[in-house]
Amino acid sequence: MSAANDFSNSKRILLKRLGAGAFILAAAGRARAQSKLQKMEIFIGTTPHFGNVIIGADKGFFEKEGLPVAITNFASGSVAADAFRAGRGSIVVTGDLPAMRLWQQGNVGICAQANYNELSIIVAKNTIKGPRDMKGKKIGVLMGSTSEFFAKLYLAKGNLKPTDADMINLRPAEMVTGLARGDLDAFVIWQPFGWRAIAAVKDAHILTTAKGYFHEWEAVTTSKEYAAAHEAEIIAFLKGLDAAGRWMPKNLDEAAKIVAAQIRLDDIKLARDMLEKIDWNIAYTAKFRKDMEVVGEFSNIKLNWDAMFDQRFLARLGPSFVE
Asked: pTM of this prediction?
């Protein structure tokens, strides 16, 4: 066989091998593209504060990212945290204090979910005008939530200790009923339960909002095990959540109808009023960390951000998401 023929045969063999390799790589790429993300079990509360999660599912923002989700509503974020702590769910959305307590127990934050300062409120009988008037009074508080933090913070303003009042652990709806029946003198919670109480109890008023006391954040938490095994699902969730948060301010009327239906709230206007007051920025910012540290310091929780917050998922969305 001539040298020319040998060269020609070798060239054909090489081309075939290259073609086979290209086919294998293309097939592997298609397999990855076609692989489905696992369903994410999301635990949230039952108020409009969780609106971007609800909208993300209802308007298909998660679906667009290829992420199937199942949302479970609980009476509050802190109750959802208890269920998550028991080993259920993929991720949980809570207020700042429940989130930090979950982080203390070895879980990690992956993003902010919402922030506001006028929706946490203290409702009281008209005879109560300030923190000193709380002494010896029966106050409804959802222990383990930001409600507990706000109650202690407000009492401290009047130089009162938590033991100077009778703080009773109740769920939000129970607080409204308790005030109406005369079993409570005040309660500390968030809207819409303040507005509901004012409508039901003639001699009650909103004593104060959290404005001037603290800025409240809600955060998304997952386990370290889930974070390690489900990077693609978490990134898809964050993309969908961010898209939902950007859509809502431009479509408040539609968003209010969707959120109200999901949480079984009859008053759509009330839902809209709340959604309008919420900032849906999910970024990891200096303000987020500073505001969380204020709550943590008051509650004797030292935040180690490197250990308690996994910012690598937000970083995949772009530099504007990590400050």
From this structure: 0.81
